[in-house]
Write a structure and sequence with these properties.
Blueprint: H1 2-6, E1 20-27, H2 33-46, E2 52-59, E3 68-74
Parallel strand pairs: 1-2
Antiparallel strand pairs: 1-3
């Protein structure tokens, strides 16, 4: 489950080198501490050696024999670089101030 969480095709990038990891493992009472530790080690090996990892686990009998692993990774350094191209605002604005509508310019 841990390998699937960090190698999901839904990810935009891998967690390799992440400097911050938020990790949650959910399973039933049948999930042993050894298995939880093994999953946490797999994920921590992919992160930066100095990564700050915040870890939690939940016992939920409703999941049956399934294990759910949630990973939120941050701090990738220059991986999100735009390679010199200007990044577009999600709201369409290109400058620091909004454009004044024509009817207000009079």
């Amino acid at each position: 489950a841990a390998k699937q969480a960090i190698n999901s095709p839904l990810l935009e990038t891998s967690i390799d080198g992440a400097k911050g990891i938020l990790l949650n493992i959910t399973g039933s009472e049948e999930l042993s501490l050894f298995e939880i530790n093994e999953a946490a080690e797999i994920i921590s090996e992919a992160a930066d050696p100095e990564a700050n990892i915040i870890f939690g686990s939940v016992i939920d009998e409703n999941v049956g024999d399934k294990v759910f692993i949630t990973v939120v990774a941050t701090g990738f350094g220059d991986q999100g670089s735009t390679n010199g191209f200007a990044r577009k605002s999600p709201f369409g604005a290109t400058g620091n101030s909004p454009e004044v509508p024509a009817f207000m310019k009079r």
